[in-house]
Write a structure and sequence with these properties.
Layout (H helix, E strand, L loop, with lengths): L4 H5 L2 H5 L9 H14 L8 H12 L2 H17 L1
């Protein structure tokens, strides 16, 4: 979701380089959150990439997922 958070966190360049298919507008995220709340859902993943990531995260063992996340976060902070 494109917001000013990336600029403040110092990762604005990485956020702006994401393809438009990888982002969901703040309005769409808010609408999905409200709809999920009304339905009693505890979590949502608006957008196809978020859904794929959430689903994949359930299938990948933590022993693989956590190191991969650390590596990805380290690359973002160094670029």
């Amino acid at each position: 979701m494109p917001t000013e958070f990336g600029e403040r966190a110092g990762v604005g360049d990485q956020e702006s380089s994401l393809p438009s298919a990888a982002t969901v507008s703040p309005a769409d995220v808010a609408a999905a959150a409200i709809a999920a709340m009304i339905k009693g859902k505890r979590t949502i993943a608006p957008g196809p990439l978020a859904k794929a990531g959430a689903f994949g995260g359930r299938l990948v063992p933590r022993s693989v997922l956590l190191p991969a996340t650390r590596i990805a976060a380290g690359r973002l902070s160094k670029d």
